[in-house]
Amino acid sequence: MTLLRSEGIDVHYGRVQVLYDVSIEVNEGEFVALLGTNGAGKSTWLKAVSNLVTPSAGKVFFDGREITALPPDEIVARGLGHVPSGRGTLPDLTIDENLRLGGHLLRNEKAKRREAIDEIYATFPWMKDRRTQLAGTLSGGEQQMLGIGRALVNRPKLLMIDELSLGLAPIVVEEIYEQIAKLNANGLTILIVEQNATLAMEVVERVLFMEKGRVQFSGRGRDLLARKDLLRSVFLGAKR
Ligand SMILES: Nc1ncnc2c1ncn2[C@@H]1O[C@H](COP(=O)(O)OP(=O)(O)O)[C@@H](O)[C@H]1O
Ligand SMILES: [Mg+2]
């Protein structure tokens, strides 16, 4: 079943068009990676889906209903989680405060929010042990996991993570991928944006490749690898 469908999305920043007719489907249970060089429009597409930027054309459907013009909070409440690049944590707040803020939509249902946070603590016990630690003093990988934890408080059906591994050491990247794969195995649909194409292609079921605001490919990583016309050596040469 299709969980997310973007149909013919165009986005302009002022007069400059950066997305052209972007149609992407994500099926329930999938783990997909959106790849592409810097400036291809990946983050913009995620923002268009979350209605953080307003598309100039196209529609977005999630979980069977159109969400194109819904307020971003309402989209989150429907189960679409978005971890922005740069982790999306607040450095001067503690782990616990960050998680509570992530669940601000549940602020009037404190018991429900507490329960959701306790579940995250059960999944990531280190967060519980260090719940009074300031987010700004966490390592890069821990901040990324906390950013993901913040989105999980809302019990998403689909989690979109922008720049999953950017700036993280290879060993940390490996751990994070393991955690994400576990979340996926437990039923969460996941879309990651990943700079490290080589790595992502090894891990996910399906990759999407975007260039200059257009989706150029959707399929298995190894089939993308065969498309020398799409993959520039610069991109494939990215260090893992
Ligand atoms: N707020 C903005 N205002 C104007 N141009 C932007 C803005 N954000 C991104 N862009 C431009 O849109 C294009 C796509 O950017 P982005 O979606 O961030 O690409 P990616 O995430 O693939 O690196 C780039 O040319 C970028 O410079
Ligand atoms: Mg980006």
Structural class by sheet pairing and helices: alpha/beta
CATH superfamily of the domain at 2-89 and 159-236: P-loop containing nucleotide triphosphate hydrolases
- Per DSSP, what share of the residues sits in E-state strands of 2 or more residues? 25-35%
What is the number of helices?
A: 10
What strand order characterises the main sheet? 6-7-8-3-9-10
Text of the CATH class of the domain at 2-89 and 159-236: Alpha Beta
Query: Biggest sheet, open or closed, and with what strands and sense?
Result: 6 strands, mixed
The first-to-last residue Cα distance is: 33 Å
Q: Percentage of helical residues?
A: 25-40%
Q: What is the rounded Rg?
A: 18 Å
What best-fitting shape do the alpha-carbon axes yield? globular
CATH architecture of the domain at 2-89 and 159-236: 3-Layer(aba) Sandwich
String of helices and strands: EEEHEEHEHHHHEHEHEEHH
Primary descriptors:
alpha/beta, six-stranded mixed beta sheet, binds adenosine-5'-diphosphate, Rossmann fold, four-stranded antiparallel beta sheet, 240 residues, single chain, binds magnesium ion
Write the layout of secondary structure elements.
Elements (H helix, E strand, L loop, with lengths): L1 E12 L2 E12 L3 E5 L6 H8 L7 E6 L2 E2 L5 H6 L2 E4 L11 H8 L7 H14 L1 H5 L10 H13 L5 E4 L8 H16 L3 E5 L3 H7 L2 E6 L2 E6 L1 H5 L7 H4 L4
Parallel strand pairs: 3-8, 3-9, 6-7, 7-8
Antiparallel strand pairs: 1-2, 1-4, 4-5, 9-10
Helix pairs in contact: 3-6
Bound molecules: adenosine-5'-diphosphate (ADP) and magnesium ion.
The site of adenosine-5'-diphosphate has 10 residues, from helix 1.
